[in-house]
Amino acid sequence: MIEGKIIKNEAKDIISISVMGHADSDEYGEDIICAAVSIYLTNTINTLTEIVEVEDFIEYEIGEGHFLLNVYYDNLDLEKKRETTLILESLKLALTSVEDSYGEYIKIVTEEVQ
Q: Does the predicted model carry a pTM greater than 0.85?
């Protein structure tokens, strides 16, 4: 099962996203759920680094069955923060949409930290 955790701060900004595991809904290379999640995660990193250009304000790791993204908003200007927030909320929507359709293979939880 794919397990994802989205962490928001008190201001409701997404500060961390972690995704672990495999859906195991089909054979390797045929698993459309793993493929969809992988594409969403990779696209998010590519968008943040190549389009929004906030690579100095994020840390990320992508591996086999492992994804971690931490976002540091402290020195982001207002426009970059708005764009980053929009992209991360879009990722959250994409992941929860996959969960809505394939809940036996993926679970996404959102937590707020103080």
A: yes
